[in-house]
Design goal:
The chain is elongated and about 80 Å long. The protein is mainly β. A five-stranded antiparallel β-sheet has the order 3-2-6-7-9, with no helix packed on it. The mean pLDDT is 89. It is 12% helix and 60% strand. The chain contains one helix and nine strands, in the order H-E-E-E-E-E-E-E-E-E. The N and C termini lie far apart (79 Å).
Length: 124
């Protein structure tokens, strides 16, 4: 009887030490903005998201319009985006331009959704 009791206690203690994967991951949403005069319709480019603690880099091109959603470890990151942006101005004219966006520091530490807005820098 005592052996069974100790076994049950041991199992409960080991189970309580298990950390859920959901506790260490978060959903990061990165939105690219071209200011008030242009609406970004589509991004064709690559985002490099680097964990500032571990130096691990996540690379993705999975943009939905001007929004990128990626699951990351909860931490602080730097973000670099390079590519092409399809934009529409107030008069309805469409242009495709080379662009980049950068942030030295973004904190993605909440358990829920973490959001960052990066301003686009147009090249040329």
């Amino acid at each position: 009887m005592m052996k069974q009791f100790l076994y049950i206690i041991s199992v409960l203690l080991l189970a309580s030490c298990h950390q859920e994967e959901n506790d260490i991951l978060t959903m990061a949403t990165v939105t690219l903005s071209a200011g008030d005069t242009l609406t970004v319709e589509q991004i064709q480019g690559t985002a490099r998201i680097t964990n500032l603690n571990s130096k691990q880099t996540t690379t993705t091109s999975d943009f939905d319009g001007a929004v990128l959603r990626v699951q990351l470890l909860r931490s602080s990151y730097s973000i670099d985006v390079e590519g092409l942006a399809r934009c529409r101005n107030r008069h309805g004219e469409v242009s495709i331009r080379d662009m980049r966006a950068h942030s030295d520091y973004q904190s993605f530490v909440s358990k829920g959704n973490n959001e960052a807005v990066l301003d686009i820098i147009f090249l040329k």
